[in-house]
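tool_call predict_complex ligand=uridine-5'-diphosphate
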Amino acid sequence: MHVLVIGGAGYIGSHVVTALIAAGNRVTVFDNLSSGLRINLQPGAAFVHGDIRRPDSLRAALAADVEAVVHLAAFKAAGESMERPEKYADNNIGGTIQILNAMTEAGVSRFIFSSSAAVYGEPEYLPIDEDHPQKPENFYGFTKLEIERLLGWYDTLKGVRFAALRYFNAAGYAPDESVVGLEQNPANLLPVIMDVARGVRRELQIFGDDYETRDGTGVRDYVHVSDLARGHVQALDYIDKNDASLAVNLGSESGLSVLEILSAARWITGREIPARTVGRRAGDPAELVATSAFARETLGWKAELSDVDSLVETSWKVYRRYL
Ligand code: UDP
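tool_result ok
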């Protein structure tokens, strides 16, 4: 299939590109390089430098026999989304509407969407399944939920078949080092730990150690980015074969605390990685863990590389290139 990967120069997007190419697809990356990186562009993929808020460039990209779209182009900083909702509304929601309209105009009806566990908000029970109430705690999560709702209507009214993939915490790098771009100004735990390990940040700030978790620090479901990437390929196959849409969790189904990741990172990197406990970060729940039973049943997908050692080792392999 010819797949247009919007946001394909980003961290998750470039891994999705490698998985699609490995599965035999033809790939074109569409990216405005606002946070995506040229170094992430894969040799086997074509590249269009364009912005999702400009329908003309989208139309032109879709005109080249595209059969499916994978859309990962979004702003994703939950904290910033509360201060600048207009930026998130315009790009995440407005940009996706442009894509959907350009797709339906071009007759492209397969759509894989980067959704997020942020659509659920504060957990009411664990593990979180797809029927968990959806009450996003931040505007970022709201944009993802709003797009999922739009997709339901485009499915009914326009025949767009979609998979909304609700990522839990993406982490790690492709073990074959096919992606080596580092995220710019990361706020996520593992990239921050890696930056401390390679000496470009002084210390890790641990956001609270008084949660009701096994060691007091926040517990999350970290899923290896190569597992996530494979999920996109399997989801595309699913919507194609079944002519049906779905929203599905992609998580490892096991929780890791901040301290567990930190101690694995100290062990694997052999570096001190100074850390200091500070106050809780606003809006952070104590624990978020998925059940991915639905992904297993529908897509035959299961996390395979998402243990703490693989997450840290594959990250360090890439970060240590920049020592
Ligand atoms: N965290 C931390 N220090 C940091 C970044 C994150 O202690 O510099 C904690 C955060 O409170 C949460 C976990 O690490 O418990 C994962 O946070 P991240 O921002 O990576 O992902 P989130 O779950 O917020 O999407």
